Amino acid sequence: MTMLGMDTAYAADCYPLGSPFIYNHEYTFNSAQNYPSYSPPWKDLSRGGTYSVGGACANRIQNTYFTFKAAPGLTPAGNDNGAQWFDVPNNDYLQVAMKVYIAGNRRDFFDIPQNAISNQCNGSCSNNYGTGGQVKLRLKIKKKFVGQSFLVNRDIGYVYAASSASDIPSQPIVIIRLNAVMTVPQSCSFDVGDVIEFDFGSIPSSAFSVAAGNRAQGVNTITKNIGIECKNIDAQQMLSARLEVANYKDNIIISDNPNVGFQLADSNERVLTPNNINSFIPFRLDENARSQFILKSWPVSVTGQTPQPGPVAAQGHIRIDFQ
Question: Per the database entry, which stretches of residues form a coiled coil (predicted)?
């Protein structure tokens, strides 16, 4: 009896044929406003395209019941102005809200999350599905920022389906993915250009034969005085510079050689921790909206193992923040 009950529940579950169908949505917004809680109107995004699914939805059925869930990592951040907001991992500046279109005879948008919403087909729809191909999206400024803020290839929602409202579907049939950028008028530029380069020249592999996390032996620290000029930011404004890195461990930027890393620090050699909004170098703009700050860097051993000879490179991004 128990096995029969499990089989019956599974029969109502719809699942992807292979991998879930992915809708990639793009959103670009140039905002004249830049303050916490500001949100532009809903943006309609449409990718089109249909998909087929397996399980109970493989053939035409009476109704399909859709469940919407926020992608893992997104955390609820309150509800206001008809929007359910979510904080986004690794983005300190933006929140996201979304509504997903249910096709069939329902033809309406619903917030994420939702549970078991019927497409109201009553047996009249084909088994080619389009739910998830249209979304309404809103971004909200969580923290005032400089320049641009990005959501890159970010999964924001999952669509599940079942042939019964009482079933709990186990596999997403659709992934809703977002590439978004919001640009604000406030901007800053460095006097050295877009790239701040620390070139250590030729370093012997033996220099990294130290304990993991320690500086490479016999390599001098490079110090750079970075000039900065800002636009549409008040004179005497306090700002800060911090480090954003894709590949890092603790406070080490990992290079394309996994045994070799680099650290970035302030004038007192306090090391910046990547992707930590509380690890920064503060500075104040002068009357001409200009300033400067010191950056220091040196190579370190990531693993304590001697690296293979050859060129190495690492990269990060200096983020300018309001204080």
Answer: none
